Amino acid sequence: MRLSHNDIVTLIMSLGIMLIFSRIVGEVARKFKFPLVVGEIITGILLGKTVLGHFYPYINNSIFPSQGNVPLALNGITSLSVIMLLFVAGMEVELRILRKNGKRALFASMGGFLIPMVVGLYLGLYHTDFFHITDSSRKVFALFLGTALSITALPVIARTLMDLGLYKTKIGTIVIAAAMIDDLVGWLIFSIVLSLIQDHKEAGWALWQTITFTFGYTLLILTGAKWVIDKSLPWFQRKFTWPGGVLSLAFGLCFLGAAFTEYIGIHAIFGAFILGIAFGDSQHLTHDARNIIQQFVTNIFAPLFFVSLGLRLDFVAHFDIGITVVIIIAAIATKLAGATLGALIGGLKIKDALAVGFGMNARGAMEIILATLAFEAKLINESIFVALIVMAVFTSILSGPMLAFFCRDVVKVEPKITDLGEVF
Questions:
Q1: Which of 109, 117, 206, 250 is the most exposed place for a label (fewest CB within 10 A)?
Q2: CATH class for the domain made up of 94-292+318-406
Q3: Per the confidence metrics, is the pTM higher than 0.70?
Q4: Long-range pairs, 289-295, Cβ under 8 A, ≥24
Q5: Residue 365 CA to chain centroid, in angstroms?
Q6: What are the residue ranges spanned by the domains of the chain?
Q7: What is the pLDDT of residues 44-67, one digit of tens each?
């Protein structure tokens, strides 16, 4: 593939329009106390087939053509964006918090993962007609739906707890630790789901092969590779130009890990996520370096990804109220029931356990990325894709106020809808 002169002009123009309009609409969304990412998704809906493509299809196709080299190039850029987003999400995982909050976090995590998983499996296996899924793919779809209901959005949860002054409290550390476990297990399972889709004809062997490679890679990166990164990072920061040296190292490792897992049959995002954990957990990574990496990704590449979601399809035409309501209710009820029950078993009082349940309910960007990858793999249809995005936004907005309500005795700031603009 070679981009022509017109292709290059169109691609650069589309990227510029996506970045500028997403920032403008995103800032308007923040004025109404909505996450910045809501504005970015709305931007895609306005510029895509839903609005601009419906009323002015010629203009829409001129800026965002659906065929040719430009959409392929844009898809490559958004694929890189997803990989970098998962790397940054992995950097939010602090292994020391997991070690400090063993039993309580484990129980809350198990409950918050198993109950949504069981309900998702049930819905996916026995209600295929409702979701318009064929019988041939229902087992893989059921596993995906269980994972989609089980996963959390660690960056959203962390920012919400910080905004409410709860990050270093007992509730805050339990919520964070449990969310870390849920996300780690969720991405492990989802990587296996994607592998099953890609290797459908050899599912029996591919499953065990993928499981072996997945756990082997995770163990290697979180032990040996993590130790090497931690020991070499100080030297790297001293010898190389600031901040370019750290950026090059961080994203070089991110892309190498992503390439390796993609090569062995696990999706690239998992390699980036695990390497993000190893890199971000280094005690030598400074706050400034961490912040620069996060700002670079969340303000340039994240908007391109979230705007591209709205460009993919007509959100009005594919909005199914029944599927959307079922997914939202299932997501909130199962995560709340599971995490609360687990926290109760772990020894928390009912009010604190409910705070843990609502704290873990945010799905955010992790859910959106999950839905996008499943949609690209043709595992889910347009209606389920739209429903999962609506659920991700709704649960993330709901989580903050409910957490503030149940922790009102210890909240240090005025309860509010948290500003999730940069970490959604």
A1: 206
A2: mainly alpha
A3: yes
A4: 289/237, 289/243, 289/246, 290/91, 292/243, 292/246, 292/247, 293/88, 293/91, 293/246, 293/247, 293/250, 294/88, 294/91, 294/422, 294/423, 295/422
A5: 4
A6: 94-292+318-406
A7: 999 998 999 889 999 988 999 888
